[in-house]
Amino acid sequence: MRPSFVLSNLLYAGAVCCLLSGSVFAQQRSLSIREAVSLTREQQPQLRAQQEQANAAAYSVGLAKNTLLPDLTASYQAGYATYNNITGMTYPGGFLPISGPPSAGNTYDAVPGSVLSALLKWTPLTFGQRQAAVEKAAAQYQVAASQYNDALFRQQYTVIATYLDAVYLRSLTASYEANIARTATGLNQALVLAKEGLRPGIDTAQFQSVLAQAEMDLLTLQRRYFEQLAELAKLTGLPAKPSELQLTDTAFLSNTPDAPAATGGTGGHPQLRLYESKKVLSEAALKEIQRGWRPRFDVWANAYARGSGVAADGSVDKTDGWSLSRKNYGLGVQLSFPILGFAQANLQKKQYRSLLRADEAQLQQVSLNLQKQQETAQFNYDQQLLITRQSTVQTRTARFAFDGLKLGYESGLIDYTRLMQGQYELLKAETAQAGAYLQTWRALLDIAVAGGNLQTFLDTLK
């Protein structure tokens, strides 16, 4: 085994590390956690779609209020038809009735007719039905807005968690680089010792195998890091390639966060607000049903002019059909009430009362879940701080032990197996320490999530 082989492996590992650390010549796009959270709101298409859905729901309130305005319809029609008529009552629908006295027989010579009309309809008094519709539309808008806020909260949490995972993977780079360097140094030392006859030649082959595995581990880490950057680019809506992203908030993961401030309960949690708005919507829908079985008061006004090709004496003058020779106007009110609608109204009331009770139960469950989530998150944070302190001790002692084993191997006091076991324990301890720091920050994030305010987490970053 030649030293040039060791050098080539070191150069290869260094190239991989350069790619992983972002020290490439491509233009880099810096990205902080706060910017990533802000970009999620501004650039993610899915959230923009939900925002527009909430905006559309806001117009429903104006549409409900707009029913107070009168409806004025102007129309003109002309036709060519026969005028055979008869006296009697028929159920409306299925045919077009004609006006005028009954005819003595049938005449199939059609004559023209025309009409110009203006019809006004107004419902100024609804006995509370319009107000109930307005309240329901407002509640629907609140549900849509709450759904958007809840989706935004979830996406921003996902962005922060993805960012933390990416920083964690990047923090492992130094440990994996050091592991490659330790293995390469051991291989070089084994070559020298084997040449001098102090170590068996098989040690060099074993070191070569471990070095290849260490390089593969680094490549796997690079792939996982790339995947996290790709996910982060997708969540933030950035057009940059994953390899062009440069994470700027990385130093915080080497320290434990300060104790979180009091969250002030879960009353402002987006998920709780969503279920509160659903309950309000059910209340508004029930009120609309309760006011549905009430009278309806309408005002109408009509003015029109007609022309017919048939005169009052029965003579036919087709040219008169195009002249608006008869004019009328009218004004009136109408009060209507669905007398037999009480059965359907009562069934609908029972139905919507059950839906309201279901929403109340769901709201209670969500409130309980958030309360327990907050308690669990605080406990996990306290425990994770203790774990992080112990992981630091573990790494320090594992490094001390490896240094001693390395000296023992060079002196011929221990064999290859014990040295590799110590090196593995050191890498394992370094990885566990990085993971412990990550989990501590994740626990702090969980506290912020349980409180419904991610800003408490962002304020902790240094």
Automatic annotation (TrEMBL):
<dbReference type="GO" id="GO:0015288">
    <property type="term" value="F:porin activity"/>
</dbReference>
<dbReference type="GO" id="GO:1990281">
    <property type="term" value="C:efflux pump complex"/>
</dbReference>
<dbReference type="GO" id="GO:0009279">
    <property type="term" value="C:cell outer membrane"/>
</dbReference>
<dbReference type="Pfam" id="PF02321">
    <property type="entry name" value="OEP"/>
</dbReference>
<keyword id="KW-0732">Signal</keyword>
<keyword id="KW-0998">Cell outer membrane</keyword>
<dbReference type="InterPro" id="IPR003423">
    <property type="entry name" value="OMP_efflux"/>
</dbReference>
<keyword id="KW-1134">Transmembrane beta strand</keyword>
<keyword id="KW-0812">Transmembrane</keyword>
<keyword id="KW-0813">Transport</keyword>
<dbReference type="InterPro" id="IPR051906">
    <property type="entry name" value="TolC-like"/>
</dbReference>
<comment type="similarity">
    <text>Belongs to the outer membrane factor (OMF) (TC 1.B.17) family.</text>
</comment>
<feature type="signal peptide">
    <location>
        <begin position="1"/>
        <end position="26"/>
    </location>
</feature>
<protein>
    <submittedName>
        <fullName>TolC family protein</fullName>
    </submittedName>
</protein>
<dbReference type="GO" id="GO:0015562">
    <property type="term" value="F:efflux transmembrane transporter activity"/>
</dbReference>
<keyword id="KW-0472">Membrane</keyword>
